[in-house]
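Journal club prep — side note

Before the paper discussion, L.F. wants everyone to see what a predicted structure for a comparable chain looks like in token form. Sequence:
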Amino acid sequence: MSDGAGHLLVAHGSTDGRWRAPFEELSRRLAARHPASPVVLSYLEKCLPDVPGALHELYQRGCRRIRVTPLFLSHGRHLERDLPDLLAHARRRYPDLFIVCEPALAERPDFLAALLAVLA
């Protein structure tokens, strides 16, 4: 059972398992670091679980506070329109659900610093 908090990772999605593998590994490692708070990886397109299904899973597991981390390097249509629409629908479906959505990865100074260290 969850402590009421859950973490939803959102990736674009691909039918290619090689593309999904790093996201799945990231999800496994994050879940191992935070065993009291469920971590679910979801996709916007082409594979499952989709965002509504993943949010439902977290809700069913007792999560009422969900942190959403888009695994997108930069802001675009999916983060401008698609993901906010899906989250708004979830808020209407589950009125007791509190959702916080983080920005695109490259908008985070800590991510840019880590990326710079890798590239340097």
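L.F.'s comment for the group: The first strand starts at residue 5 and ends at 11. Keep this in mind when we get to the figures.
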